[in-house]
Write a structure and sequence with these properties.
The chain is of the alpha+beta class and 331 residues long. The protein folds into three domains: 62 residues; 64 residues, Arc Repressor Mutant, subunit A (Orthogonal Bundle), CATH 1.10.10.10; 184 residues, 2-Layer Sandwich (Beta-Lactamase). The chain has a six-stranded antiparallel β-sheet with strand order 6-5-4-9-8-7. α1 packs parallel to α3 and α5 packs across α6.
C-alpha cells in the first residue's frame, strides 16, 4: 500500500512538474510519456483530464490565440493593448466593457484586466453606475505638463486676453497629426465649448490647427498633407496663405455648430510652430469682433514667440525645405 501511494505521488509530481516547465508544449508530444501513469490510479486520471482539457482548450479555440501585431521584437504587446484601450475613448465619453472590447478587438476578459490595471493607476476611472469607464485624471495631469515651457510663457498673456474679451482662451500644440489642447481659460459667461485640456481636434477645420500647420515643421506638414483629399488640401493651403498674410486663422462654425474661433501661431527661434492661442465663443459675438480679436491675438502671439527666442530676421535656413513640401502638395 505504501509503495502504491509513493508511486502515485511521484506520478503527480512528474505531471505537474512537466506541466509547469513546458506550458506551451503540444499534448501529442508528451501524451504517451504520462498516460501510462494514469492507467491504474483514479486521482492521476482526474489530474490528466484536467491538464488535457486546459491545455487543449486554446488549441481548439482559435479566438484564444493571440498572434503578435508587430514584428518588432522590442515592442511589448501588453503595453500596445493598454494604449489601444486608452485611445478607444473619445474625449469625455463613458464606455461599457463590451464597447471597449469591440473597439480594441479583445475578448472581454482581457479587456477587463487591462481596464482594472489602468484604473489602479488612475488612467481610467469607473463611472458612477459601476459599469462604465472614462479617462482618468492622471491622463489630464500629464497633458497639462506637456510643453510646460510654452504654457508657462503663455499663461500671463492668456489671462490678459480672457479679461479683455471675456471669452474662452485656448492653448494648443500639434501632436500626432491633431490639435491637442494643453490649457484653457473659460469665459465667465454661461456659454461653454466642448474642448477641454487633453481634447484632440482635427487640424483642417479649427483655427488652432490652421495656425499651427502654417508654420509646422517639414515632417508634420507631410504627415498631415498625406491624410487629406485633393479638395481638402487645396482649401487648407488657401487658409495657410491667409494666416501668413494677416497673422491669424478663423473657424466659422466649421468644428462646432454655433461656435466661432480665431487662432494665431506661436513660433520657436527656428520659426517653427510650437503652439497656438485661440479665442472662442458664440459666432454672433466672435465674428462681430473678428478684426479686433485677430489683431490683438496676432500681436500677443508674436510677443510670446519673441520670448520663446524667435526674432523676425528673415527666413530661417530650415524654412526653404518646408516651403518645398507645401509647393509639392499643391501640384
Amino acid at each position: 500500500m505504501r509503495l502504491e501511494r509513493a508511486r502515485r505521488k511521484s506520478g503527480i509530481r512528474k505531471v505537474l512538474h512537466f506541466t509547469l516547465q513546458n506550458p506551451t508544449t503540444q499534448l501529442s508530444n508528451w501524451n504517451a510519456n504520462f498516460r501510462h501513469l494514469t492507467n491504474d490510479a483514479a486521482p492521476l486520471r482526474m489530474l490528466w483530464h484536467f491538464v488535457e482539457w486546459n491545455f487543449g482548450f486554446a488549441s481548439r479555440n482559435p479566438a484564444m490565440k493571440l498572434p503578435r501585431e508587430t514584428n518588432d521584437k522590442y515592442v511589448v504587446e501588453a503595453v500596445l493593448k493598454a494604449l489601444d484601450v486608452l485611445e478607444s475613448f473619445r474625449d469625455s465619453e463613458e464606455l461599457q466593457l463590451s464597447e471597449i472590447s469591440k473597439r480594441v478587438s479583445l475578448n472581454k476578459s482581457r479587456a477587463f484586466r487591462l481596464l482594472h490595471t489602468l484604473c489602479e493607476r488612475g488612467y481610467v476611472e469607473r463611472g458612477t453606475d459601476g459599469h462604465r469607464y472614462r479617462l482618468g485624471i492622471k491622463l489630464f495631469e500629464h497633458a497639462s505638463s506637456l510643453r510646460r515651457d510654452v504654457k508657462q510663457v503663455a499663461q500671463p498673456y492668456m489671462r490678459k486676453l480672457q479679461l479683455r474679451f471675456n471669452e474662452t482662451v485656448n492653448l494648443a500644440v500639434l501632436h500626432g497629426g491633431e490639435v491637442l489642447y494643453i490649457d484653457l481659460l473659460e469665459s465667465s459667461r454661461p456659454f461653454r465649448m466642448s474642448a477641454m485640456v487633453g481634447s484632440r481636434m482635427p487640424i483642417a477645420n479649427t483655427s488652432l490647427g490652421k495656425a499651427l500647420i502654417t508654420h509646422a515643421a517639414e515632417h508634420d506638414l507631410e504627415a498631415v498633407f498625406d491624410t487629406l483629399t485633393p479638395t481638402e488640401l487645396r482649401k487648407l493651403r488657401a487658409e495657410m496663405e491667409i494666416v501668413k498674410r494677416r497673422g491669424y486663422a478663423t473657424d466659422q462654425e466649421e468644428n462646432e455648430p454655433g461656435v466661432a474661433c480665431i487662432g494665431a501661431p506661436i513660433v520657436s527661434e527656428a520659426g517653427v510652430s510650437v503652439g497656438a492661442l485661440s479665442i472662442s465663443g458664440p459666432s454672433s459675438r466672435i465674428l462681430k469682433q473678428e478684426r479686433e480679436i485677430g489683431a490683438t491675438l496676432a500681436a500677443t502671439c508674436k510677443e510670446i514667440s519673441r520670448q520663446m527666442g524667435f526674432a523676425e530676421r528673415g527666413m530661417p535656413q530650415a524654412m526653404p525645405n518646408r516651403n518645398a513640401v507645401v509647393r509639392r502638395a499643391g501640384n
